[in-house]
Amino acid sequence: MTERGVTGSESGSRSVTGSGSSMDTPPRLAVDRLLDDPKTRIIVCCGAGGVGKTTTAAALGVRAAERGRKVVVLTIDPARRLAQSMGIDSLDNTPRRVKGVDGGELHAMMLDMKRTFDEIVEGHADAERAQAILANPFYQSLSAGFAGTQEYMAMEKLGQLRARDDWDLIVVDTPPSRSALDFLDAPKRLGSFLDGKFIRVLMAPAKVGGWAGMKFLNVGMSMMTGTLSKLMGASLLKDVQTFVAAMDTMFGGFRTRADATFRLLKAPDTAFLVVAAPEPDALREAAYFVERLAAEEMPLAGLVLNRVHGSDAHQLSAERALAAAENLEEGGIVDQESGKAGLRDGDDGDANANVNADAEADANADVDEITAGLLRLHAERMQVIAREQRTRDRFTSLHPEVAVAEVAALPGDVHDLAGLRAIGERLAAGFPAGA
């Protein structure tokens, strides 16, 4: 694996490990150093769904732009949260300038899978053939929903953006699938489909004079096409064969561009960030991503651990907080006295004193109840922190070389640039409050 983690203890080296790092304390990912490095041209955020990849990608884009770089963020997330957080009415297949960002420039776009496929056809076929392909029913189905098409088109769009060389930095938010590294597999899968035996069979009739010619040459082929007609329907089979014939000259281009983009992802100016939450399932996925990136020799920069909890009162353990809460609650029950026990007729002075004492006792009981409740909330927070720490330590024991930036959990959702800036600051700090 090409490792590009940058720790706070380093002064220029791009090695993952930093001085003084240990199994229990992973090297810290220096996010600002990664963003500021002019050699970093592409950052790919990958990870399981629901861990904050989109927010992380957007926050990195905002922070890099406000530190002077010209950035474009490419998202493949269908929830459109990125557009909302950046104050853009809608994102589409064209990069749009984000207002309110000082220093450099920030552009954002959302992948339009079908439009990107259409652009490939229009750019690599003459007008007549392009029109035939775009109007073909099988092509319309393929471009809109064929397995792996979204990931392939994300790779295609990344290649287009990098080739234009209009931006210092491209930040990619990978598709929100469970196996986010389908992003890496898609070019191979689509290339295998286009180069496969099924496609070659469908291309053969056009090359030898149509289906009649194939029947003459091979009775077995005729039987196979009859079976295909039954399985697919004669109309669909004709649409597929027409599509394949029209796309014939473009198939090699698909594979060539996919291979070029794959090489781009392995280049030294690319950095992968694995994004996770401090939860067992998410970190198991993160471990898989790290191992997969290593197997593919992709340049891993580090792990972004989102929504990490911390406490400014971490010196007070959960056990001590629970014990203190129990003492307050038990003391309130045992010590509380009723001022009415000694009340006698005509003894107004004593009655007033007892009423005052009663009110004071009630007030003290209320304070004790509130304090005990706060202590129990603190104990719960400390237990969450301890559980997250154990989960993170298990990941670190497997991958002690991976640099980590821990991002403190925010009290609410991110819905504007201010929220993205707050995330960026936490990314740069690399550890939660009270850690």
What does this structure look like?
There is one protein chain. This protein is an alpha/beta fold. The protein is 56% helix and 10% strand. The chain contains 17 helices and eight strands. It has helices spanning 31-36, 53-66, 81-85, 113-124, 127-135, 137-145, 149-164, 182-195, 197-207, 211-217, 219-232, 234-247, 251-265, 280-295, 318-335, 348-398, 417-429, and strands at 42-46, 70-75, 96-97, 105-110, 169-173, 270-276, 300-308, 404-408. It has an eight-stranded mixed β-sheet, sandwiched between helices. 38% of the residues are buried. Residues 9-23, 206-233 and 333-344 have low confidence and may be disordered.
Which keywords apply here?
10% strand; 435 residues; 8 strands; alpha/beta; eight-stranded mixed sheet
Sheet with most strands: strand arrangement: 3-4-2-5-1-6-7-8
Largest sheet: 8 strands, mixed
- Span between N and C termini? 30 Å
Low-confidence blocks of residues: 9-23, 206-233, 333-344
Q: Give the H and E element order.
A: HEHEHEEHHHHEHHHHHHEHEHHEH
* Shape estimate: elongated
What is the structural class?
alpha/beta
What topology emerges from the helices and strands here?
Layout: H1 31-36, E1 42-46, H2 53-66, E2 70-75, H3 81-85, E3 96-97, E4 105-110, H4 113-124, H5 127-135, H6 137-145, H7 149-164, E5 169-173, H8 182-195, H9 197-207, H10 211-217, H11 219-232, H12 234-247, H13 251-265, E6 270-276, H14 280-295, E7 300-308, H15 318-335, H16 348-398, E8 404-408, H17 417-429
Parallel strand pairs: 1-5, 1-6, 2-4, 2-5, 6-7, 7-8
Antiparallel strand pairs: 3-4
Helix pairs in contact: 2-17, 4-5, 4-7, 5-12, 7-8, 7-13, 8-13, 9-12, 10-11, 11-12, 14-16, 15-16
